Amino acid sequence: MKLRTIFLLLALAIATTAVAQQNKRIAILETVDKEESVPYGVKLIVRSKLGTMISSTHGYEAYDRVDIASIMSEHEFQRTGLVSDLEIRKLGEMTGADYILVAEVADIGNSAIFITAKILNVETARVERTADIQSSTSSEELENNCRLLANELLNVNATIGVIHGELKFGRDRYLGEYKDGMPHGKGKITYGTGNQNGSKFYEGEWRNGKMHGTGTFVWVGGERYVGTFNDGTREGYGTYHFANGDVYEGEFQYNNRQGRGKITYAPNNPNNCNYYDGEWYEGKKDGKGTLVWVNGERYEGDWKRNNRHGNGTYFFPNGDYEVASYVNDKKEGHATYYSSDGSVWKGSYVNDKREGNWDCYIQNKLKRTWLYKNGEHKRTIRH
């Protein structure tokens, strides 16, 4: 009996491996825009939609989570597509792909774009199939047209095995397309009361029971996310509306604001901020970015974990600006203050307060020195 069970398990493992090996792996490159006239969000939707449609097709597996952009940059591949057999094979080896998909978009005016795509065989370096389509930039039409584009590229019907109906998961109710008893395609799930994270509903694309593609997720408290998902997590480009009125638009990874993005703060917020536009990491301002206040003041420079940290420039509404170094949101070390009257002040900060000698230069000549102690002006020395 035990021996028979072992044989059955071995047979199942071999069969599973064989099925996995039959899947054709397609690496999707960054969407090419030679004229750089199409918004980044549109190009990201094209790439994401093509990946979703291909992955929902039996026998194919699309992936773009490897950092293909940096690989191409490091090895000097062309942004306009692969140009030689050797480069195609090299990129295939690096990504582990059987095929490579290159999509290109062009702005043709009146909020319309033209999309052309080709699939290249890594082994032969030949173009297996090409397809093109014209579309508006609305997310709904992009979704439908990318579905048609993927179907033409693969020459199959990507909706085989998908049916429309209602599913129930405890108190949760799903209405839409599903496959093998799990949401798959387009549909809406309404969450029952008392769920753990206060979810209200999700409406959008699914793959094998997980949110995947573009969709809208709404919480009971009023927060809302509209954008792309990957295997159940917010990943890619999207817009997040906070309950307090703040709105973030930009990149996400693993459910966090991460990458490049802009948050516009609600009116009358406690810090009187207008917006922050820059880099994020794990949901916090981190990297290079600009914070603008309602009164017109702004800071441009380095950030770390939501604090000004590193080198930055602070601009004042009257035209003055100061270049300084920051540590945990406080000025620390040498700084130079440029006044709108043409004078330049040079000195140092300690714990966000002026300390020691601050020299005033007019037309590159030292005119006077102000002596500070713990931020207070003590005396002036004329030169």
SSE map:
Blueprint: H1 2-22, E1 24-28, H2 40-55, E2 60-63, H3 68-74, H4 85-95, E3 99-109, E4 112-121, E5 127-136, H5 139-154, E6 163-169, E7 172-179, E8 182-190, E9 199-207, E10 210-219, E11 224-230, E12 233-241, E13 247-253, E14 256-264, E15 273-281, E16 284-293, E17 298-304, E18 307-315, E19 321-327, E20 330-338, E21 344-350, E22 353-362, E23 365-373, E24 376-382
Parallel strand pairs: 1-2, 1-3
Antiparallel strand pairs: 3-4, 4-5, 6-7, 7-8, 8-9, 9-10, 10-11, 11-12, 12-13, 13-14, 14-15, 15-16, 16-17, 17-18, 18-19, 19-20, 20-21, 21-22, 22-23, 23-24
Features:
alpha+beta, Rossmann fold, 24 strands, elongated
Low-confidence stretches: 1-21, 73-83
Main β-sheet: number of strands, strand sense, barrel status?
19 strands, antiparallel
CATH-level-4 superfamily name of the domain at 21-154: TolB, N-terminal domain
In the CATH hierarchy, the third-tier topology of the domain at 21-154 is known as: Rossmann fold
Specify the number of helices.
Answer: 5
Residues in helix, %: 10-25%
CATH architecture of the domain at 21-154: 3-Layer(aba) Sandwich
Taken as a percent bin, the fraction of beta residues is over 45%
In whole angstroms, how far apart are the ends?
101 Å
Roughly how many Å is the radius of gyration? 28 Å
The SS-based structural class is alpha+beta
Top CATH class of the domain at 21-154: Alpha Beta
